[in-house]
Amino acid sequence: MGVALQKKTSLEDSARIVSLEDVSDPLLRDLLSYWERTRAGRDMPVRREIVPTAFPRLMPRMFMVRVQEGPSFVYSLAGNETVEAHGDNFTGMDVRELDRHAPGYGASMQRFYTSIVRRRRPCAAEGSLQFVNRGFCRFKAIYLPLASAEGTVSHIMGAAAYEMGSE
Q: DSSP letters of 36-84?
């Protein structure tokens, strides 16, 4: 979801897109492989084919975003480590409400999730969550689009690896 900002660094500069091949966390790699197997040559798997609980060790770091018309994005799942890293449980929250935590955060995530919906492809990001003032926290995350029965993106499933501690 995000990472801490450096002093004099904008929110937009707190994270960057990275190649899926650069994701080294074994649990994130396993989730990406599961997504690839489940999509079986299609653009993306259908949401009903995905069983997040198949990854019990990853559940605390997982999140699910429901894609609604507009598009708008509502968090439908936030694991314990994600809640701890961000200092809030975003379940049920529209992504644009993240601006309450840091000006521009919601707008930035709205643009990011919109790009995933348009591309219909998974992506990875890394960065800092310093801007949420929870202690320095770096992250690497994957974002995996899931389809509705009609083939439109209905959800974005994600998971992050967090590094907490001092800067």
A: HHHHTTSSS-BGGG--GGG-TTTGGGEEEEEEETTTEEEEEEE-HHHHH
* Residue 141 CA: distances (Å) to CA of 23, 25, 40, 86: 8, 9, 23, 14
Q: pTM score, two decimals?
A: 0.88
Q: How far apart are CA 103 and CA 19, in angstroms?
A: 27
Q: Distance (Å, rounded) from C-alpha 138 to C-alpha 111?
A: 21
Q: Report the greatest alpha carbon distance in the chain.
A: 46
How many angstroms separate the first and last alpha carbons of the chain? Answer: 19
Closest CA to 50 of 76, 85, 71: 76
Nearest by Cα to 89 from 79, 97, 99: 79
The mean per-residue pLDDT over the stretch 152-161 comes to 96
Asked if 2 contacts 15 with a C-beta cutoff of 8 angstroms, the reply is yes
Phi and psi (nearest 5°) for 22?
Answer: -85, -5
CA 155/CA 75 separation, integer angstroms: 9
Query: Rounded to whole angstroms, how far apart are CA atoms 38 and 67?
Result: 20
Q: How confident is the model at residue 2 (pLDDT cuts 50, 70, 90)?
A: very low
